[in-house]
Design a protein that fits this description.
The chain is mainly alpha-helical. It is about 65% helix and about 5% strand. It contains three helices and two strands; from the N terminus they run H-H-E-E-H. The chain has a two-stranded antiparallel ribbon with strand order 1-2. The two termini are about 35 Å apart. About 5% of the residues are buried. The C terminus is likely disordered.
Length: about 140
C-alpha cells in the first residue's frame, strides 16, 4: 500500500510541476505558440495521463481491499465471530454457520442469479447437481 501511495504522490507532484511549467512557458512567450510552449504542453499532457493511471491503480487497490474486508466480515458474521476490541471476540446474535454451509448457500445464490438472468427461474430442478442446495437452511450437525 505504501508503494501505491508513494507512486500516486510522486505522479501528483510531477503533474503539478508540469502544470506550473506550462503556465510559465505561456507567460514567457506572451501567449504565442512557440516550441517551448508546445514542449511544456506535451509534458503537461504526459504527466496528466500518468497521474490518471496512478489514480486508477489506487482506486483498484481500494476496491479490492473493500471487497476483501466485506468478504471477511461476511464470513465472520456467518461463523459467529465478531471482534469488539482488538484481541477480544464476542458472539453475534445469529447462530453460527459452518464454512461448508456458507459456501453451499453462496453457490445456490449464484445459481439462482444465473437462472434469473437467463430467464429460467423458479423450479429447483434446474439447479446444477454440482452445487446441491437444501432450501430448508437447516444448520449443519457438525457445528
Amino acid at each position: 500500500m505504501d508503494s501505491i501511495v508513494d507512486s500516486l504522490s510522486s505522479a501528483y507532484q510531477e503533474f503539478i510541476a508540469a502544470a506550473a511549467g506550462a503556465l510559465e512557458a505561456k507567460e514567457s512567450s506572451v501567449g504565442q505558440k512557440t516550441p517551448a510552449t508546445d514542449a511544456a504542453l506535451e509534458n503537461f499532457k504526459q504527466r496528466w495521463e500518468m497521474f490518471r493511471v496512478y489514480c486508477d491503480l489506487a482506486e483498484e487497490f481500494v476496491e479490492s481491499v473493500k471487497q476483501r474486508i466485506g468478504s471477511e466480515c461476511l464470513v465472520d458474521e456467518a461463523t459467529g465471530f465478531v471482534a469488539s476490541k482488538p484481541g477480544q471476540t464476542i458472539q453475534s446474535g445469529l447462530p453460527p454457520i459452518s464454512a461448508v454451509r456458507l459456501e453451499q448457500m453462496s453457490k445456490a445464490v449464484r445459481w439462482l442469479v444465473i437462472e434469473l438472468q437467463q430467464g429460467i427461474g423458479g423450479c429447483s430442478s434446474h439447479h446444477n447437481a454440482a452445487a446441491p442446495f437444501d432450501a430448508r437452511f437447516t444448520e449443519d450437525a457438525t457445528q
